[in-house]
C-alpha cells in the first residue's frame, strides 16, 4: 500500500519546484527579449559606424568629427571600443567608457581559470586636406565577462530562491505532518509513569501511517489494562487463599490446641489439688499451670492476628472491623520494649457497616495496617506513630501510617523485597490503587516515613 506520509510531505515541495521552473522560464524569456534587443541595437550601431567611416574620405575634418560625435551620442558599441587619432597620434574620438568593475578577488580567480583574449583591428583613412586618420576597433572582454557573470548570478539567485522555498515548504510540511507525534510521545511518556489513559485517548491522526501507530498504541494500552486486571485478579486470589489459610489455621488452633490446652490445664489443676502443698511436685505443677496459661494467652494473641474479627464479618467495614483496628493499635501500645507511642485517627460514619464494600477491602485495610505497624515497631525506632483511616460517605477511604523514625535509606529496594513493604504494596495494588511511600519530613535528621493509599469505589463499580 502506498505510504501517505511522503506524499503529504513532498507534494507542496513539488509545487514550489514547479513554480520555480515557471519563474525561471519567465525570467529567461524576459532576458531573451532584452538580449535580443541589445544585440539588435548594437548591430545597428555598428552598421551606422561602418557607414560613417566609409564617408570619412569625402568629409572635412570638422564635418567628420561632428558626424562621429552625433553617432556616439545616439548609440554605443557592444563590447567594442572605437579610437580615432590624427596623423600625429593625437586622439580625436574615443568611445571608451569605464567598464563594469568586478571584485578583485573574482577577477583574479577568473583570470587564473581562463584569461580573456583581446584583439585590435586598425586602419588608416585618407583625409581630403592631406594626411590620414588612424582608426582602431578593440575588443572589450571585461564587459562581456561582467555581463555573462551577471546573468549567471541572476540564474543562481533564482535557483537559490527555489531551493530555499522547497526547504521551507518541506520543513513546514514535515512539522505539520509529524506534529501528532508529539502527542504520541507524550502518551508514551505517561505510559512509562503508569498512566495508560493517555494512550487510550489518543486523537485520530491526520496521516494513515501515524493513525496505524496510534491504533497500535491504543491496542497496547487495552492489552496492558487487561493484563493488569488479570494480574490483579490473580493477586486477589492469592491473597484470598492466604486469608483462607489464616482462618483455617486459626480454626485449628482454636479447636485443637485450645481444647487440648484446656484439658491439660484442668488435669494440672486436679493433680495440684490431689497433692499436699508440701509435696515436692507442687511447685512443678504450679509452673506447668502458669506455662499453660501463658501458652493459651499466646494462642489467643495469634488467633487475634490471624482472625481479628468474627467469622462472616470480613467483607464489611462495620463495628467488628472498627474494633479490630482499635484493638490492633492498642496491642502495639501495650507491647513491652517497643518504645513507640501508637495513635489511631479513625473517622468512620456510623452507617458504614450497611454500605457495599469492594471485595476484601476491609480485610486488606486491616492487613496493611497490621504490616505497617509491625514495620514501625521493628525497624523505625520512632517516638510516635499514627494510623489514619478516614472513611467518607461518597465511597472514599484514606489510609495512612506515619512515623517520626529513622526512615528507610533504601526505599526502592525495600519495596522490591518479597515481604514487608513489598507485600503491603502488593495488597494495595490488588485493590487497583498505588501505594504512596515517602519520607514524612524530607531532609530532617529523622525523616520518618509516610505510607498512604486512597481507595475509592461506587455502586456502579461494585455491580
UniProtKB/TrEMBL annotation:
It is found in: Membrane. Its main location: membrane. It comes from the Bacteria. It comes from Vitreoscilla filiformis. Residues 210-244 form a coiled coil. This is Two-component system sensor histidine kinase. The chain crosses the membrane at residues 9-30, 148-170. One of its GO terms (molecular function) is protein dimerization activity.
Amino acid at each position: 500500500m502506498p505510504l501517505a506520509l511522503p506524499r503529504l510531505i513532498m507534494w507542496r515541495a513539488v509545487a514550489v519546484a514547479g513554480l520555480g521552473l515557471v519563474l525561471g522560464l519567465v525570467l529567461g524569456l524576459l532576458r531573451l527579449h532584452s538580449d535580443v534587443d541589445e544585440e539588435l541595437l548594437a548591430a545597428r550601431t555598428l552598421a551606422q559606424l561602418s557607414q560613417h567611416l566609409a564617408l570619412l574620405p569625402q568629409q572635412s575634418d570638422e564635418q567628420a568629427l561632428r558626424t562621429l560625435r552625433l553617432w556616439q551620442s545616439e548609440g554605443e558599441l557592444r563590447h567594442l571600443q572605437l579610437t580615432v587619432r590624427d596623423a600625429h597620434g593625437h586622439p580625436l574620438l574615443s568611445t571608451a567608457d569605464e567598464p563594469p568593475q568586478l571584485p578583485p578577488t573574482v577577477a583574479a580567480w577568473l583570470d587564473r581559470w581562463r584569461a580573456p583574449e583581446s584583439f585590435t583591428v586598425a586602419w588608416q583613412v585618407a583625409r581630403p586636406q592631406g594626411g590620414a586618420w588612424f582608426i582602431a576597433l578593440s575588443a572589450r572582454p571585461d564587459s562581456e565577462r561582467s555581463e555573462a557573470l551577471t546573468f549567471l548570478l541572476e540564474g543562481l539567485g533564482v535557483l537559490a530562491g527555489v531551493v530555499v522555498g522547497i526547504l521551507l515548504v518541506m520543513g513546514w510540511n514535515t512539522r505539520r505532518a509529524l506534529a501528532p507525534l508529539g502527542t504520541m510521545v507524550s502518551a508514551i511518556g505517561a505510559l512509562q509513569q503508569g498512566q495508560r489513559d493517555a494512550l487510550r485517548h489518543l486523537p485520530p491522526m491526520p496521516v494513515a501511517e501515524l493513525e496505524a501507530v496510534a491504533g497500535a498504541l491504543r491496542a497496547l494500552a487495552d492489552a496492558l489494562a487487561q493484563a493488569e486486571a488479570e494480574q490483579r485478579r490473580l493477586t486477589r486470589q492469592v491473597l484470598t487463599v492466604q486469608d483462607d489459610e489464616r482462618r483455617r489455621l486459626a480454626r485449628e488452633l482454636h479447636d485443637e490446641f485450645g481444647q487440648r490446652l484446656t484439658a491439660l490445664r484442668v488435669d494440672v489443676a486436679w493433680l495440684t489439688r490431689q497433692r499436699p502443698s508440701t509435696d515436692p511436685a507442687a511447685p512443678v505443677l504450679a509452673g506447668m499451670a502458669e506455662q499453660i496459661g501463658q501458652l493459651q494467652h499466646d494462642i489467643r494473641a495469634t488467633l487475634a492476628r490471624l482472625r481479628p474479627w468474627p467469622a462472616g464479618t470480613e467483607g464489611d467495614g462495620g463495628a467488628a472491623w472498627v474494633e479490630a483496628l482499635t484493638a490492633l493499635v492498642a496491642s502495639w501500645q501495650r507491647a513491652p520494649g517497643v518504645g513507640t507511642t501508637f495513635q489511631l485517627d479513625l473517622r468512620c460514619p456510623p452507617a458504614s457497616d450497611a454500605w457495599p464494600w469492594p471485595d476484601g477491602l476491609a480485610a486488606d485495610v486491616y492487613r496493611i495496617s497490621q504490616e505497617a505497624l509491625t514495620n514501625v515497631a521493628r525497624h523505625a525506632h520512632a517516638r510516635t506513630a499514627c494510623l489514619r483511616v478516614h472513611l467518607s460517605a461518597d465511597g472514599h477511604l484514606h489510609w495512612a501510617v506515619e512515623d517520626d523514625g529513622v526512615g528507610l535509606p533504601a526505599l526502592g529496594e525495600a519495596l522490591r523485597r518479597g515481604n514487608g513493604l513489598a507485600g503491603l504494596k502488593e495488597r494495595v495494588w490488588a485493590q487497583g490503587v498505588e501505594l504512596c511511600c515517602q519520607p514524612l519530613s524530607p531532609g530532617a535528621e529523622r525523616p520518618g516515613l509516610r505510607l498512604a493509599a486512597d481507595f475509592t469505589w461506587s455502586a456502579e463499580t461494585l455491580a
